[in-house]
Specification:
heterotetramer, A alpha/beta, B mainly beta, C alpha/beta, D alpha/beta, B: 4-stranded mixed beta sheet, 1 helix, 19 strands, C: alpha/beta, 6-stranded mixed beta barrel
């Protein structure tokens, strides 16, 4: 059986033009997808059944037992942490928020170690952006800053930017100028018309200099800024100002390096300044398939996109204080529920280590590094493979992930609802 | 009147305590106050040994003294308007939030967000203060608007972010981005600083130590003798990237 | 040699990300890319092991040359190897220094650890499954 | 079977010509019936003011833009936080509250039906997700067509039938309710950073004018027999001197429908400015209302502003950028491919600002100068002019000259010179307010026959009982009591269930979403049009098969099917 227009749930591009061939409940061929999509669908090995860590090692347990014990762990906690959410659908995320609100937990999603700083910047200065089709149809200048789409978002350039045929840009490769800014000469830098190599940690200074130049204050700028020549900066500023439609995409090179959200704020303010000359937009390249969805769901339910603390009954938000890494590193939480993510692998050691000291429950289709740190791991469906649900693309476009096969696992939203019901004395949300 | 609060040993010492109830005014009516440990409500006496010495008829004569392990206690002195608080050791986050009057003295170190959105009064921190000392809240246009924060040690990053009024005086060094987004007030750093005053709009900043990674968008205007610090300083205007009209003085 | 540790996503890391117990994942996540000139100075060849140290701890990685990496910078795919030595300090932002950790790099003969071993080093118990 | 017997209600039900009668209302299974059994729950209304549930015919509460307003505003979120309480979830926010915050506060004010003012079809799924999390109001979504490429192509070809076909396909795909045009043509121009300055200016690259878009869409709307009319946010919003554009627009509106207006002009306060600069801006409310008073084919809503902090959010991207250049605060923009734009910035309306005071006065003038209250509905373009929780204050101002005078005394002195508000003696009565907050909306939106906006037999039992005794309160003098009374119902009944009591929600919500499935002849079905499909697949970034909103997003969808045209 061939299934058309399948959505790949791996990264924030949510490409929705895949063709899957299924046979006997198995996916046997993926077409149109990148290497990441192919491995997502083709080599999807799962934890077979719920497991529990005991004195003598791991043992299999039933779903009912696992759910009961999870509820007990959460019920007794003084500062539970609910973390992850970005690789599952909105339906599960929304139950997660209800659990957090019910038990006075901290709930955080993976943007905390991804584009959390972008959110902090947006909260200071806003976000002049657009859907990806605007870029595809109009942009004649594309800037990739501190990101490497060839590796992290392999089809971004062919679907939305550099190589995509757009209404006002029929000959994309000739009509689009691509600028890449990075500390490393990446493969993406290799295809750029202009590569700007910045010294480590110099992004903020370069962005400030560009803003000043765009404002006609080039005289203030020294001959070199963070390793970039003033001539090149002036040239870049000119390319931007004379663009018909410019688009900046940025990645973890800005969010994770020195200064964190201030880098992004500066990039947004450069975009703002350029809008006084022409049309310019800026967008983060979001990582996990539905990380933006977790921000959306958290926001309409709690008012905040991530790092929400319900300890006092109301929703409180203060990244740096209520973010997962900080809560773990300070050893604050006394129980953790990890859903659809792998902090064991993705958090600094000291933060991950705390998960092994407290009762941690993982709900995830796959065995991952966090499994080793957990007391219980409950396997579930993978959104977009054997579960349907809502995901939000990196530009905010909501897309319904398809269920393409059935592998007999329960949906994580169902598992979470059962946990909620137990916590709520048998009553639904 | 003197209220001494000595922290009790806790089963889970890493759990944060939120204790905005600890302000002098509240002790006029007794010590029957509520605080929070993690997601649980506690009475003050569950977490502290409480000793009261003397009496007071008005809150300005009340002194609150915190002893023991107080490093995880947040929001002490929040909305405080009068009286004084002395913390003998370290204090947790958000000490002196929205404070409008009175004095807080911290003999140890202060965690992040010391004096957040402060309006008036004085905070003295004898040790170091962590990140976001004397700043504002996420998304808000103004940080600290009045009063004085004096840190005798050093501070972490983003000190005096969005400073809009009042004085912040750091005797030691400040980390990355002190005075970032400043729009008023006065920031004095006697030690070193990295990338000071990024994107500043207005206000003034004096740095007596070494500046690392000076931003390229500050325009050097002149030299000036600063008699109160007994130095000659280069005077910069900026941040030019932001049409800013702030003043940044750096020892020549 | 003093360097800055940079981390990021790569296609091979992404492809194997749900198979963290597998050897292929270990190879990918424990590869450390250095500028060839830096490798010469360290006296190491492609495939040699290096010990990377920070105040948080140390980790053994496999050195790989990459022209695109700047001098005094090393690049490791995001994952448990890099995170073993990255500080959990977030500067009040929630975000650790995943791209600006200062490290010390030296050649070593020590063996590579598996992901399971790394997790066990912090109190975990591996669950063998690929 | 659930039954309620509301007795001793002082009912104003304009659509049924009831004005202040003391009567009983019988409710069975969500509808108003002749009588109920003696097992019915009894609510004694104690002669309090009882109205059909409130309807907001233009508010921004759900969807991409609204959520982005929340996302970028942690400082607002902390302004209105409440804990979980009984059936009520946690809420945050004052001017852009969380979905539950919106739903609870509207319900406390007696509102039971809301029209989300702007939904981009590409992002419709998001709006519907938030609708299900806004559980205490029936919802419907105005669907944006202002920069829709397929519509502009059909308009250029002067093909009303094709235009109608595109509208029908898109409404169905988006599960939308009606046609919304926001700065028609201007949002497309904004794609390259431009705007349009008048209704006869060409949209770049598309060779159509706003006037042509508006005219063709009005005809297509009536051809499709949509329940609501075209819902227009005029060009040139918020610019001094824009009243001329507004009047020119009103001039091209034919009278095509005997049952309701042909054009719904929204937040007209923002479109009624004289002068040429911010320095000499003045009110042109008299000119606007005299146009509306002579044109029954037009209904407008106020777009009242109230003083304080709020958030502006609209599909009108270029307007928001201009506003941003004045305010220098944070600015978000979100253009939607082939469809529309949007922008968001926070603002503070201040009594110290002459411009803000004049804006405030204009909104009230519009309401007081419009003769027929069915033609000027009460709203703030929530949250653009003010958060909806300010509606009771607006009601107070409209009912009391004294209240207005007291407010005027605190305003910038230019207000009196450049508006006529201080000279207006009119004080609206209870019946006028009932029209302007529910009956008028139901009629304008075309939902009277869905049982909305009235309390006749067969109507949906959406009822608001306010703690106001109209026989003993003099609104002209005791306006404080009026304001307080409208802030919190004693009972809000939604589809026959008491959902809110004295401001607290007491049950889980079970709202419905109304959407329109407009029928077109077989040869006009866009899903079979090869040219439409080709263009879609080429220029959108989602596949056409993944675009339509699936039924699972409307767990209680109420499909309204129209009659096919020929």
């Amino acid at each position: 059986m061939i299934i058309h227009d399948v959505i790949c749930p791996f990264c924030g591009c949510l490409c929705d033009d895949l063709e899957l061939e299924c046979e006997g409940g198995k996916i046997i061929k993926v077409q149109n997808g990148c290497a990441l999509a192919e491995s997502t669908f083709m080599t999807d090995t799962r934890l077979p059944a719920p497991i529990r860590r005991t004195e003598s090692g791991w043992e299999e347990i039933s779903y009912n037992e696992a759910i009961k014990e999870t509820a007990e762990i959460l019920q007794g906690a003084d500062r539970p942490l609910l973390y992850g959410w970005s690789s599952t659908h909105g339906e599960a995320q929304s139950v997660g928020v209800h659990i957090a609100e019910l038990i006075g937990a901290v709930i955080d999603n993976t943007s905390t170690v991804c584009h959390g700083p972008s959110i902090l910047a947006i909260q200071e200065v806003g976000h002049p952006g657009c859907t990806l089709g605007q870029v595809k149809n109009r942009a004649d200048v594309i800037i990739y800053w501190g990101c490497n789409p060839i590796e992290a978002h392999p089809r971004h350039m062919s679907r939305y930017t550099t190589y995509a045929t757009g209404f006002f840009v029929p000959d994309a490769q000739r009509e689009r100028t691509v600028i890449v800014v990075d500390t490393r000469r990446t493969d993406t830098a290799g295809i750029a018309d202009e590569f700007v190599q910045i010294e480590h940690g110099g992004d903020y200074a370069v962005l400030s200099a560009l803003r000043a130049i765009v404002r006609g204050k080039a005289s203030v700028i020294p001959a070199k800024v963070a390793g970039v020549s003033k001539e090149q900066l002036i040239r870049i500023a000119e390319i931007c100002k004379t663009a018909k439609f410019g688009a900046i995409f940025f990645g973890l090179g800005l969010t994770m390096s020195r200064g964190k959200y201030k880098n992004i704020r500066n990039a947004i303010e450069l975009t703002d300044e350029l809008n006084r000359h022409t049309k310019f937009v800026i967008s983060p390249l979001r990582g996990h398939g539905n990380v933006y969805g977790s921000n959306e769901v958290f926001t309409w339910m709690t008012g905040y996109p991530f790092a929400v603390d319900f300890a006092r009954g109301i929703a409180f938000y203060n990244p740096g204080e209520t973010t997962a890494v900080d809560i773990l590193r300070r050893g604050e939480c006394d129980a953790a529920l990890i859903v659809a993510s792998d902090p064991g692998a993705n958090f600094p050691r000291a933060a991950a280590a705390h998960l092994a000291k407290i009762p941690t429950v993982v709900i995830d289709p796959h065995v991952n590094a966090t499994t080793a740190l957990a007391r219980i791991h409950i396997p579930c469906t993978a959104a977009g493979i054997d579960a349907a649900g809502t995901a939000y693309r990196m530009d905010g476009v909501p897309i319904r992930l398809k269920k393409v096969i059935d592998r007999g696992y329960p949906d994580d939203a169902e598992i979470l609802k059962k946990i909620y019901d137990r916590l709520n004395g048998g009553k639904g949300p | 009147m003197r209220v001494i609060l000595e922290s009790k040993v806790r089963a889970k010492p890493n759990l944060p305590i939120e204790a905005e109830a600890i302000i002098p005014r509240n002790f006029l009516k007794g010590t029957d106050l509520l605080v929070y440990e993690g997601n649980k409500e506690r009475t003050l006496s569950e977490l502290f040994w409480i000793f009261v010495e003397g009496t007071a008829v008005s809150p300005e004569n009340i002194e609150v003294i915190l002893k023991g392990d107080t490093s995880r206690i947040k929001r002490v002195g929040e909305y405080m308007d009068t009286g004084s608080i002395v913390i003998e050791g370290d204090i947790g986050m958000h000490c002196g939030n929205f404070m409008s009057g009175g004095t807080i003295e911290i003999r140890g170190n202060a965690d992040s967000w010391l004096g957040r959105e402060m309006r008036g009064g004085t905070i003295l921190c004898r040790g170091n203060a962590s990140h976001y000392c004397a700043t504002g809240y996420r998304g808000e246009k103004k940080g600290m608007q009045g009063g004085k924060v004096e840190v005798f040690g050093s501070t972490g990053d983003f000190c005096a972010e969005y400073l809009a009024g009042g004085t912040v005086h750091i005797h030691g060094s400040a980390g990355d981005f002190p005075g970032v987004e400043m729009r008023g007030g006065e920031l004095i750093i006697e030690g070193d600083a990295t990338r000071p005053c990024g994107n500043m709009k207005s206000g003034s900043c004096v740095i007596l130590g070494t500046v690392h990674d000076m931003l390229p968008t500050f325009e050097k205007t002149r030299q000036r003798v600063l008699p109160e610090w007994k130095i000659t300083a280069d005077v910069y205007k900026g941040d030019v990237a932001n049409r800013g009209k702030g003043t940044l003085c750096v020892r020549s | 040699m003093k360097c800055i540790l940079n981390t990021g996503r790569t296609v091979p890391q992404g492809v194997s990300v749900e198979h963290k117990g597998a050897d292929v994942y270990r190879t990918i996540a424990s590869s450390c890319f250095l500028n060839p000139v830096d490798m010469m100075i360290l006296g190491i060849e492609d495939g040699d092991r290096i010990r990377v140290t920070t105040p948080t701890g140390h980790i053994v990685l496999t050195a790989r040359p990459a022209e695109g990496v700047a001098r005094n910078e090393i690049f490791v795919a995001i994952g448990p190897y890099a995170n073993h030595i990255i500080s959990s300090e977030t500067h009040g932002t929630g975000m650790p220094d995943f791209k600006s950790q200062r490290v010390d790099v030296e050649p070593t003969k020590e063996p590579l650890k598996s992901v399971g071993e790394l997790m066990e080093a912090i109190g975990g118990l591996r669950y063998d499954h690929t | 079977m659930t039954e309620i017997w509301v007795k001793n209600a002082c009912v104003i039900d304009p659509l049924n010509h009831i004005n202040g009668e003391i009567m009983d209302i019988a409710i069975r299974d969500g509808r108003i019936v002749e009588s109920v059994s003696d097992r019915a729950d009894v609510i004694d209304a104690q002669r309090c003011l009882t109205l059909p549930g409130g309807i907001d015919s233009h508010t921004h509460v759900s969807g991409t833009k609204v959520n982005f307003g929340r996302y970028m505003s942690p400082e607002d979120m902390r302004a209105g936080r409440t804990k979980r309480k009984g059936k009520m979830h946690v809420t945050s926010g004052y001017y852009v509250p969380t979905t539950f915050g919106n739903s609870y506060r509207y319900s406390a004010m007696g509102y039971t039906t809301l029209l989300e003012g702007a939904m981009a079809p590409l992002e419709a799924r998001h709006t519907h997700e938030e609708f299900t999390a806004t559980p205490h109001q029936d919802m419907m979504a105005n669907t944006l067509f202002d920069g829709n490429w397929a519509v502009m192509d059909a308009v250029r070809e002067k093909d009303v039938r094709k235009t109608a076909a595109v509208v029908a396909w898109t409404l169905k795909a988006a599960r939308g309710y009606g046609i919304k045009l926001t700065n028609p043509g201007g949002t497309e121009a904004w794609g390259f950073g431009e705007d349009l300055t008048g209704i006869h200016e060409m949209v770049p690259h598309f060779a159509v004018t706003p006037a042509e878009i508006i005219t063709t869409m009005m005809r297509a709307n009536e051809l499709l027999k949509l329940p609501h009319s075209v819902h227009l946010h005029c060009n040139n919003l918020g610019k001094p001197g824009n009243y001329q554009t507004t009047l020119e627009t009103f001039d091209i509106v034919p009278d095509l429908n005997p049952d309701r207006q042909t054009l719904y002009a929204t937040h007209v306060q923002f479109h009624a400015y004289g002068g040429g600069t911010w320095k000499n801006i003045c009110s042109k409310a008299e000119e606007i209302t005299s146009s509306v008073n002579s044109r029954p084919q037009i209904v407008m809503d106020m777009g009242q502003i109230m003083f304080g902090r709020t958030m502006t959010m609209t599909a009108d991207g270029p307007m928001e950028f201009n506003l941003h250049c004045l305010h220098h605060n944070k600015w978000s923009n979100h253009d939607v491919e082939l469809e529309t734009g949007s922008g968001i910035i926070p603002v503070t309306y201040s009594k110290k600002s002459a411009v803000n005071c004049i804006m405030w006065a204009i909104g009230l003038e519009l309401a007081l100068l419009t003769k027929n209250p069915y033609q000027c509905l009460l709203e703030t373009d929530n949250p653009n002019g003010a958060p909806f929780v300010k509606y009771p204050e607006i009601i107070g101002l409209l009912m009391s000259k004294r209240y207005r005078d007291e407010e005027c005394a605190t305003l910038h002195p230019e207000t009196e010179k450049r508006t006529s508000l201080c000279a207006l003696e009119r004080e609206l009565n209870w019946h006028d307010i009932a029209v302007m907050t529910r009956a008028g909306q139901a009629k304008a939106l075309g939902i009277v026959n869905q049982g909305k906006g009235h309390l006749g037999i067969g109507a949906e039992a959406d009822i608001a009982i306010y703690p106001i005794r109209t026989d003993s309160v003099d609104p002209a003098r005791e306006y404080r009591k009026v304001v307080e009374g409208f802030q919190k119902t004693r009972y809000t009944i939604k589809r026959g269930r008491v959902v809110s009591r004295d401001g607290d929600i007491i049950v889980d919500g079970a709202n419905a979403t109304f959407w329109v499935d407009a029928m077109v002849p077989e040869d006009l079905k866009m899903e079979n049009d090869p040219e439409f499909i080709k263009r879609f697949e080429q220029f959108y970034t989602v596949r056409m098969s993944n675009y339509p909103v699936q039924d699972v997003y409307l767990p209680r969808g109420r499909r309204i099917e129209t009659e096919v045209f020929t």
